Amino acid sequence: MAQRADGYTTDVDYPAFFYKEMTPVWLACVARLQGFDAPDVARPFRYGELGCGVGTNLLVAAACHPQAAFVGVDANERHLRVARDAAQAAGLRNVAFVHSGFVAFAASRPAPFDFLATHGVWSWIAPQHRAGLLACVQAQLAPGGLFYLHYMCHPGSTDLQELQQVLNLFAPHVPGDSARQLQMGLKLLRQLAERGMFADRPGVLRHLQVLETKNPNHLAHEFLTDHWQPQHGVDVHRQVGALGLDYLGSADVFNNLDVALSIPGQLQAVLRQTQIPALAETLKDMARRSHQRMDLFQRAARPLGQEAHAAQLGATVFQALPGAPASGPVAFRTPIGPVEVPQALGNALLQRLAAGPASFAELAQLPAFAGQPGALVQVLQLMLMQELVHPALAPAGNGQSLTQWFARNGIALRVLQDSGTAVRTGAAQHERNSHAH
Ligand SMILES: C[S@@+](CC[C@H](N)C(=O)[O-])C[C@H]1O[C@@H](n2cnc3c(N)ncnc32)[C@H](O)[C@@H]1O
Q1: What is the 49 CA–ligand 1 centroid distance (Å)?
Q2: Which of 1, 56, 178, 421 has its CA 20 to 30 A from that of 185?
Q3: How far apart are the C-alpha atoms of 176 and 179, rounded to whole Å?
Q4: 270 with 331, same domain?
């Protein structure tokens, strides 16, 4: 039987997903690339995930940072059982999974966190739980701490609203569990499509086609909830800003690229001239047809002065990820179409990293980048985004047992402890996070 708690799906289990954009090493690197002080991930720190599901992100991070403490909070005990089993099998003692709603967790006063993160939660839960999530950030994020918030946004997700409305209204009338309700709902939508319902909205049809390829358990969490709601980034920024947090940029580094690389050609000049920050941010989402955002905030932002920025970013070490080519040219698939890195820049960076890890300061000395550290930042961000390059981590952890647990449980992920991340294995290798959550 299908079940919901305050409108959120509880009877079928959410699958395991990993997001490179949520790891501590990635978040600290993005903050530095954006010019802000960030927690040092080589030292002890505390990281909390709100709505951690089966805990995949936390498990990877815990395996890579044995000196740090990780806490996952979720209201679904079955999800946490999977996470705890994995932690035990992989011998991870630095991660705890707490069965709690956000409102109760906000009141529980754990030690402050240097990182708080939430993915696939904000756009799906009832207003009182969103308030609880913000209360956790308010009560528990340390000064200078980083907050990662993922949500569905306009205008890329606007077209999904009518599909979600049909799925949500139809579900209670279908016997069986939420996955079956979802499948029957998709069949109904397909019948409507065949009878011309979305004939004038090709965007809706494209969404439907994509949904028909997805795991029904995943979609049951995504679309059967009563409170699903895409939002405008600037509205979310206002709410988070009211807690004393500042927006640093996107953990999806594509969005931090210069407009020359991340906005379609004819719109670039308009964007450059837009003086109103909230309007500029909205226009960027419109130009990119963004469907989700991965926002990075800092409590009482700590912008780095020029010297401190040069020192902190300069000391950040980058390395090639497995499978990165040893030379260019490198064409990147981006949300606005293919972008090609100038061959001299791509080659210089890839060749240097093929020889081993290098700090930003060393890379900036390469003749191709001489006198243009800004170009290095842009190329690095493109390569980070494409999973060719990653910030490096002095290896302290051991991801082998967790990688083995993933393999035993059909999760195609390999932990890279010297990068503080995981990469997809086998057939999943070339598939970027194409799902909506
Ligand atoms: C879509 S899953 C996302 C899991 C994981 N963050 C990911 O992205 O793979 C959302 C999770 O939030 C949890 N959740 C929903 N509402 C909650 C609430 N009010 N308090 C705590 N957890 C909640 C659900 O149980 C579920 O595990």
Answers
A1: 10
A2: 56
A3: 8
A4: no
